[in-house]
Amino acid sequence: xxxxxxxxxxxxxxxxxxxxxxxxxxxxxxxxxxxxxxxxxxxxxxxxxxxxxxxxxxxxxxxxxxxxxxxxxxxxxxxxxxxxxxxxxxxxxxxxxxxxxxxxxxxxxxxxxxxxxxxxxxxxxxxxxxxxxxxxxxxxxxxxxxxxxxxxxxxxxxxxxxxxxxxxxxxxxxxxxxxxxxxxxxxxxxxxxxxxxxxxxxxxxxxxxxxxxxxxxxxxxxxxxxxxxxxxxxxxxxxxxxxxxxxxxxxxxxxxxxxxxxxxxxxxxxxxxxxxxxxxxxxxxxxxxxxxxxxxxxxxxxxxxxxxxxxxxxxxxxxxxxxxxxxxxxxxxxxxxxxxxxxxxxxxxxxxxxxxxxxxxxxxxxxxxxxxxxxxxxxxxxxxxxxxxxxxxxxxxxxxxxxxxxxxxxxxxxxxxxxxxxxxxxxxxxxxxxxxxxxxxxxxxxxxxxxxxxxxxxxxxxxxxxxxxxxxxxx
Amino acid sequence: xxxxxxxxxxxxxxxxxxxxxxxxxxxxxxxxxxxxxxxxxxxxxxxxxxxxxxxxxxxxxxxxxxxxxxxxxxxxxxxxxxxxxxxxxxxxxxxxxxxxxxxxxxxxxxxxxxxxxxxxxxxxxxxxxxxxxxxxxxxxxxxxxxxxxxxxxxxxxxxxxxxxxxxxxxxxxxxxxxxxxxxxxxxxxxxxxxxxxxxxxxxxxxxxxxxxxxxxxxxxxxxxxxxxxxxxxxxxxxxxxxxxxxxxxxxxxxxxxxxxxxxxxxxxxxxxxxxxxxxxxxxxxxxxxxxxxxxxxxxxxxxxxxxxxxxxxxxxxxxxxxxxxxxxxxxxxxxxxxxxxxxxxxxxxxxxxxxxxxxxxxxxxxxxxxxxxxxxxxxxxxxxxxxxxxxxxxxxxxxxxxxxxxxxxxxxxxxxxxxxxxxxxxxxxxxxxxxxxxxxxxxxxxxxxxxxxxxxxxxxxxxxxxxxxxxxxxx
Amino acid sequence: xxxxxxxxxxxxxxxxxxxxxxxxxxxxxxxxxxxxxxxxxxxxxxxxxxxxxxxxxxxxxxxxxxxxxxxxxxxxxxxxxxxxxxxxxxxxxxxxxxxxxxxxxxxxxxxxxxxxxxxxxxxxxxxxxxxxxxxxxxxxxxxxxxxxxxxxxxxxxxxxxxxxxxxxxxxxxxxxxxxxxxxxxxxxxxxxxxxxxxxxxxxxxxxxxxxxxxxxxxxxxxxxxxxxxxxxxxxxxxxxxxxxxxxxxxxxxxxxxxxxxxxxxxxxxxxxxxxxxxxxxxxxxxxxxxxxxxxxxxxxxxxxxxxxxxxxxxxxxxxxxxxxxxxxxxxxxxxxxxxxxxxxxxxxxxxxxxxxxxxxxxxxxxxxxxxxxxxxxxxxxxxxxxxxxxxxxxxxxxxxxxxxxxxxxxxxxxxxxxxxxxxxxxxxxxxxxxxxxxxxxxxxxxxxxxxxxxxxxxxxxxxxxxxxxxxxxxx
Amino acid sequence: xxxxxxxxxxxxxxxxxxxxxxxxxxxxxxxxxxxxxxxxxxxxxxxxxxxxxxxxxxxxxxxxxxxxxxxxxxxxxxxxxxxxxxxxxxxxxxxxxxxxxxxxxxxxxxxxxxxxxxxxxxxxxxxxxxxxxxxxxxxxxxxxxxxxxxxxxxxxxxxxxxxxxxxxxxxxxxxxxxxxxxxxxxxxxxxxxxxxxxxxxxxxxxxxxxxxxxxxxxxxxxxxxxxxxxxxxxxxxxxxxxxxxxxxxxxxxxxxxxxxxxxxxxxxxxxxxxxxxxxxxxxxxxxxxxxxxxxxxxxxxxxxxxxxxxxxxxxxxxxxxxxxxxxxxxxxxxxxxxxxxxxxxxxxxxxxxxxxxxxxxxxxxxxxxxxxxxxxxxxxxxxxxxxxxxxxxxxxxxxxxxxxxxxxxxxxxxxxxxxxxxxxxxxxxxxxxxxxxxxxxxxxxxxxxxxxxxxxxxxxxxxxxxxxxxxxxxx
Lengths: 475, 475, 475, 475
Known about the structure:
Four copies of one chain form a homotetramer. Chain A is an alpha+beta fold. Chain A has helices at residues 4-12, 33-44, 52-55, 76-93, 100-120, 124-137, 273-310, 316-341, 355-366, 369-380, 383-386, 399-405, 414-428, 431-442, 447-457, 460-471; strands spanning 18-20, 23-25, 56-58, 65-67, 142-145, 168-172, 176-187, 194-197, 212-217, 223-231, 246-260, 264-267, 344-345, 351-352.
């Protein structure tokens, strides 16, 4: 397993293909570093007493200890452990831990490559296992590029005016394939080793060229990462862990990119497009049953702390609102536990969490997140929006006045009150906060997608039969 | 294990102490029978192929097969099985299965009698085990009488103007104790074999006389059951399972009732009053994580069926609303699964479900129930409120007209459309429906009680520490 | 203007065509009387000091004083007065005042008959005015029969397998027309003088036979009223106004009914079908902006009273919930005020309330009603569902015990505590309560209908233009 | 009336006492300009055909035409006009129009100065009228500084450890008073001409020194404005109105500031502290019934536009969500209309909007705002969070690719799609968006404050009497 330093060194050595604000930047660009800090936490975890039991697991392939972010889930305990690890790490970084994308894609590929082979006699699964071993041994960080830019949402891939609006195979060669298209919302991509590409939707026979899955190094020729970086507002003096985090998302453009066959895991088997898309979504939504409670922990911790500082923690409406935050967090987490416990095993041996529980939990998380932010703002009060900038706190003309007038709880130092309000201000009133809200809503699939998944997966006829039985309706 | 017939025969033999509408009625009174029908389902279950594996379990005490409604949960699988059995049985009776009260009280007593003994050197646990063996061998039905009438809610028991407003010990004799008071909302009591009494709240030293728990036959001298029976509207010709169900609740008055010592499980140990009250509540709320999804199944089944009959099942707003019903049911069920999986074992060996997951699930169920009914009404349409009475459907002057004008889906017979609407009308527009709503809200404790339990049980300091760490606040 | 007695006497003299529970019953049947009591309130109002200024208005047609329930709204003050009168009268009867249907239909007809004449040179408006004068002078009570039974909801009237599933003209004669069909949810019909029939939806050219509006006496040959009566549970001794109220709804069957031309207000002008349907809906929804706050007043009054009796009125969560009840009531009422103030005048001079405000208010009322009931149940506690029946309170064996154990607030008599809980039990746990919930949801059009009305009426392009302007998007 | 240029020129001439990021900045600092642009809109309005009828009004004092932002409301039409003007101007600037604070404070002062004089024989009202004439004639912009920093929220002003935590009179001189303290959340203060100070809460006799109201120029000696500026992200090439707006809030410190008597409007009359605080809140919340619908117009316009660009505007779930946005906007606006129509006149002749309607409307706005943002994010999709920065759109290496892959609706140019997504990204994923959310929640008083106002103002006893009447409870 790598150290965080080894991870960063590797990033520095990569071909520069990251564009930010109109120019190419190195991967250790100052605006990318906050995201790298987050991923580094997952490397550090394997050496921390309270985390290593969650973070390190034995590879079923090699029997070697590996980082859980590279593991194929063998049983329900693996799923429970992934969920718990995700929650705990999100608490540490005050937000999304970001590395889950890779492991979620690996698990989905492990299932589907096997299934395609079983039907078509292909050899995708063998290729995948070879790739997995490489991935585990090198302790890699993977981005999963799923969401195509999609053009006209009412049309299928082959019906689009510009066929590249969904990523597709434009050429098949002896040694590999050439692909063209663009994938959106690729968190972690500018500081990932690898990009794993999977389809974004169910496909029809005419969409065969769009049925493609593969993995390539993130700096492969022809790949362009157009990124947007987000972080809390930079600080000069008031250092704190919350000020070190951030994330970069990439619009990843594949401009005629060559992929060798040993890295191709689906090519033309359109009937498995939806299956792979849905499986990645399921694994990723299951990760949300860990990360959303983790982020809820941060929000409720901040809410409880500021309520204490404001002297209102005993008020019933405050306790009610805290209880509501707890209820959201723990119901979502329950859904992930239930999904883990009620998992089933695919033909490859990989465990798949129950899709109904996974989706109801993710749906609950996604449709309550804005309200969680609202509650934090409610208990914090307006100061989070009007807090004077950090520099005023170090200006001799204003410092003393600020320290005088921020005092609320005489037992808490002015600095700590300042720290508390600045953190919440950063969480709520920054582009970081806005991006987290949108990511919490749409990440892993928008609420409407989970609703569709829920109704599709659910045995509603069984429930209608209950109603018919009670009503005395035969047949 | 008894048959349903043996259960009913025993009821008939009991001393008549049930009051209804101003007079004493026998236990097989026509208005009580719907509740008896519900309980009979739990006796029949042990012989039904699809239910017996859930309904029959091996007693840890005797090694004999017993009905699960008399079992002490030995491990998480017992808790999962109780939850699942409860859901399935509620589907069969289209509502509350009612027999859970007894098993929930037994489990709570098994824990607390042991704990009191450990502290005070008493012998309550031995007494309890003797009683449990009797209860299991006779396959009894138990009501749990917990909720005191409580008088002025801002005062403790010993502060009440009338000390009897909480049930208390008024005399201690050599052979037993005499108690006086009244317990409210005692579902099943008029058709139960036994009444198990536990305290309703935490107690202070001055409340020692109110710290009492015991079990007595429901027809014990001095016990008066003032009942209110509820059922769907009686039918003459259109028979259906939904028309056979109902429930009776009792205001149970203990008018100087003698309880022999072997039936007394707590007497004066005020510091365990809150513990026992909370434990019964926890077990009972855990039962709600099974029954509320079961009732939700009935509601969503009826909603899906009537949507199909109305020809609107493909409309997106309809599918959205069905998805919301599914989400409520399965999140609540998830909470119960998580509570079971994350249970812990008391000193008696009894397993206690996790209280946070139990309470967030029960809270979610209780605060969404009215909305579930609203959704059913929404999809069914106004006819459920204005459906002409059954007799009009058999009056030659009107029958043909009604059958002509009820037609919606030409593929469904007029009778089945009638059956569907009548069932929903009975679920929504009857005293039964109103009582189910109130019971779903308050049963096992009102939402405000669950919120209090959630905040009391939750380690909020841990979450504040996360916030402090992120903000850089030391100490 | 008539007295209540004159109104009842007239009912008694009508041809018996009301079917209940399989047989024909007279109009003063004991189960119909509760509804008659409600309507009588509107006759008594004209003599009551606090009501007569609202209830009596000058006819624009004759200059005579008339009951406002027969008035054509001439200006915004008329609309404001109708709204306020409706609220106040609903408070008096603890529910729907029921007489609004007639006045809402009259106003809609006054607009559309004029508009048809203007286009087609017909003489509907003159006929209508003659009818209106008769209606006002005889101080009549009118039911509006709008909702057809509708059969397959995905098909238009002329596409139905059975063409009678929407009411239609089956014959045109020299002296009038013959109609056949059935109208559902006709509140007040069994105790109304007149039935006013209007279409239920927009119509296509092929639907011309279904484009029909008319008014006939409720006991016209061929009309059959199949009713369902609902009231709170009958009481023997504990008399109270809430125990006197109720309502009957009719499924009204028109079995080849002859309507003379002077009573026909639309016949074949299909392009005005939707207009008339929508206008009646608008007036009726505007009435809901008065009645729903009135019913909310009853619910919040009961909630505040029982909170006082329970000793919890100072608790913050209780005050919060009461504040939420107030907010719902007054927002809905605000919507009605805004709709009145922003009304416009039709070519007939009749004032039409603003449809957007009307619909958002009705929508808000309809989607919050179940929650209002939930709040009442929440504050009242479980006793409303398990309160022993009235007779037990007069049985010497149980009376004293009941009076002892119901005591909560020592300053309130046992009888008053009983009265309070019985009223709330009747509001929540009776078929009356269930029917009120469904009526509050669907009456005047289901929420989905109001949403459609809102989006259809709203100038969304104007709002898109604002967005384009801000974004710098031209054209 | 001034021009926008005159307004800006005056700002430039003021004494520099604005602190930003650790140093003093001039009032036309680049980060303050976005807020100045917003205020300029109110000066330009008087010359725009579609706005001037709303923006210009005749002074009741001088008979001269003045800007409505300096007007004392004489009747309900003035209140309706202020509400409408506020909504329309907010649409123009895509957010808060900011100038309402001054007019709201003036109206509150007009009422209370008169009332104090009536009781105490003081001459505040005369002073106020003189000040008002000056304010109107010079067409000034006023900030209202109300919210004290408040220290320990469980203590009254005189109980605070540091008495300055509420602004107070520290010295009374012959020619005026000296005050010390700090006021928070002072939007507009760094680009206002005047600061109007009013108390923040009800006061006790011991709080007499804190009962103070006055008006001073914003650059008065001793006043320090510590500001935080917020704006959408600056743009280089893609100019648009939305990119020009912003706001600055000030923590305003009064460091022993002298106020001459002619500018003092309350000094020691503690019993009017709560009255003045509540009146300003009422006027300001009434302004919210105009601005929140205006901001909702921007959100719903953007939502409808992006739904059209995404090709999903016909989907039912999209129309449902748009309908919900409309319902929120128009219910809030209805509340303001009702509050205007049901206003009453104070002894000074000033009209005061109805407080119940005002507060329920503001409460509805405040508790739905986060959900409005959520809906916009929902319909826009994830691209708003991951849209590559503006500069990438002008980098020759990436421009063409971005324009290729942003295409959704072939009928809309890539530039316009870019414009649409960038605007929404700026509204949702920027510190501007976060500040707007917090301001929408807390501005004019947090939801809990409106709930308190609602229950305090409401005649709940009247509603209890209705319940008692229906239940048959006498006395």
